[in-house]
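Incident log entry.

Two folding requests arrived from the same account within the same minute. Monitoring flagged them as a possible duplicate submission, but the sequences differ. Recording both here for audit purposes.

Request one:
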Amino acid sequence: MCFPRFASLLAVVRFFVLLAACALTACGARKDKTDRATVDEKPQTPATAAEAARVIDFSTVPLLEGATPPWPRGVASLDYKAKANPKTAFEFHRKQLLASGWKELPNTSITEQSASATFARNHFLLSLSVFPSGQGEILVRLQNLGNIRPGNLPVPPGVKPVYVGDASAMYVTEAAVPATAAACQQLLVTQGWTPYGSAGDSVNYKKNAIRISATVSAAPAQGGKTMIAYSTEQLSVDIPAPTGAEDLRYTDQTQELSFETAAKQDAVVAFYRQALTPAKWEATLDHPIEIDDKNEVIFRNPSKDMLTLAMPARGPEGKTRVSVRYQSAREIAELDKKLKEEAPALRAAAEAKEKEESARFIAAHTLPKLAVALPADAAGVAISPGEIKFTVAHGKAKATVQVFQKQFQADGWKEDLSTLDPLAGAISVSKGNQRIAIDYTDTGVTPTEITVSAIGAELERK
């Protein structure tokens, strides 16, 4: 793996922030460990989401009064906005954490504008920060950093520590950036860390529900040396990704993994059926179903949590965009409750919309009424919306139709056809989109019947 030989903005910022922290604590290759998270710093097995939740579950942590609750709420991270003083918000969560057994570590920073601190418990580390977000609001951010110390992660031979702390570790080396990046990846993969996306000079790796970020770049102001920076993060859910996944992105706030793959959709489904089995996830159907132009497979576990695997149902041949979204049983229950509460209003709104659309349809498809004056001696009258039939005495049919003819001419109708004989005849008139046809037979053998029919209008008797 080859990385660009320049320092990204993120790498530069991280470098100088850590140098500042190093100067404040006189760290260097620090022997003094009084501000480390725990006394026992032996390497731990990367925590699962369930193990992290037993230490702290941010989906159940109370928020500041009047805060805007985030949705969804994950186990390992919590971001939300509120209208409050930064100090007030910081003290609110600090008291929560101390009361539940978390130990506050040194280097807490509190100013009028922002506050931050780090806490430790049972080998886990978490960060609390509060800062302005604009429009008179603050953003509160709590992040479980997991039970893996960056300083315990492997580094290539010959590197020198610049800063090794609880939340991050930084080293420099004389080796070139590409060689150092490849060496770091080999060491991490050998220890069971799986590549899990990248951004710029940083490559992410996952093991259980811990994600680490390994940044390898040119060290700023270090005479051409290469910098290695490690940081760790606990994830709310462990979602595996197939080998060869590209543009892989996982966001803990939405608890969704997305990536592209050249594999066929059947192969992606087969991978997840197999990869999720050890964690007791089971597909609810033996085949994908199409929902909103996506082929989806739903997986549930014994806790009734849900994973939704979704891929486009249609699209050009080539790489497939895949998303895997996690929803906890609590989230699903809250959604169900919300839907039930909103159901009456939604039903009423749907019924009102249906009535409105029905009224518009009827108005658009209702034909205008056209009243026809029948002769006084008309008999056997039969009326339907588009037709009127009646009979008159023998020998009177032609004269009756001629009366109709004069009436329509007087009302502005255009005569398109006129054939009037004593035994049979017909006329046709039009006005705009309306057409009227009148025909008759008067043979003296059968009843003398006259038929008036209409297109674009409904007939009625005047």
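Request two (distinct sequence, not a duplicate):
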Amino acid sequence: MPKWWRPGTACSPAFALLVAVGLLLWLFISRTPADPDLWGHLRFGLDMLAAGTARLADTYSFTSDRAWINHEWLAEVLMALSYRALGTWGLTLLRLSAVAVIAGIVFLVARDEDASPAARDILVGLAVLTTYTRTMMVRPQMFSIALVCVLLYTLRRAVPGQVRALWIVPLLFVAWVNLHGGWIVGIAVLGAWTAAALMESRPATEKLTLAAVAAASLTATLVNPYGVRMWQFLAATVGPERADIADWMPITSLSAIVLTVEAILPALVLLALLRRGPRTGVRVPLRHWIVVAALVAATIKIGRVDAFLQASIAILLAPFVLQGVAAIGATLKAPFWDSPRVPQIAVAAAVIAAGVLGASRLGTIAVLGNWIPDRGAAQHLRMNAPGVRLLTWYNWGEYAIWQLAPAGIRVSMDGRRETVYSDQVVSDHYAFYDGKPGTLDYPDRIGADVIWIPVEFPVVPQLRAHGWRVAYESPRSVILRRDPLSTRQVAAVQDEPRAFPWP
């Protein structure tokens, strides 16, 4: 029986509030929306399991002109194994495992700081909440957020005189380089931390160990199916110039709600610093501040680094976050703390109800968002256009691979983008979508038989005026052919509840 539970008694308002916030967080993170690339990640992972190799040739696209360096192959294999074992339950549990690593690491940080149970739970909850933008979907990036937490905690524990534990870091990067390209951020974090630590007054043997660990970690990233070609691929494709991808936009492009949530941890740190003034107290090493500052600069430029920054604040600046939490708690006075107590039976009922509701959602990955095609289009293509070369929008490409590849249909572009397509192929597609001059013959140049794109794209009326006839149309998408087998007009999109793999 839990210590807080005594039949016939009541919970304090503070405890009831903490439980309520925790339940809301659980209901929040238990919901898993589908990422546009999930269909492809799972398809490729299943292919690798069937072939017994990570190095697959691309058979899904007819315009790919780059050798496929699958820098997320291990993440896709883990997704495939989870899906084969438990279906969508396996995928959501895999995602929640990454969230659990984040929560567990921050729990250890709070324990190391001797935080009170309430402050500990708040710190853990805030870490989970503020990194959720990158862990809410089943995608390889979730592994990077979990691994950066492990890295940061390992660095945090490596105080002068206790650096031998750092030798686990190279092993961390062996896994990381095969899971997701976010290992580049990890190497940058390790480099910034090591450079700052080497400037401290340490014995020469410790400095040699620090430098050796950093060098071994960088070398460990060569332990992948492609060797140095992985470095060459990422050097050529990773950069801030991706204005068409929301994740790669500056942090100011994020929504006001997301920015408000991501301001919580920095605000708590600032509050603690303002309240402390010139007084001495808990100090955070300069190397911690340098890592956080480097991630601040990166996040300002590229919004998708935000979760790395939030993790660094929760782990490296935990003393100040906890002081900020304590400062807010101290300002809450009666009548809040003296308000009527909440019956324990009510709290228990809320815990059970929220637990059951959250658990019931774990078996569903909801297909949501404006990017979604209507499933009738995929059904039409399977039935009426087997074996064609399909010019499509990249956001639908991996959905199309999952749905249409069994019918022998290949796509012109998908979410792998720079992974298998040159810059020229990508830019040509965008020029075509926008209906720019000289692009109407692009389908003929690449040998596309059928076009499937969002109905609102500027090129659609131009195609209709130049010999392309509608084979299928809905308020969401249109299929065009030179010689359609039939013309079909759909009056409305069926927006019934959608769940992966849909349909």
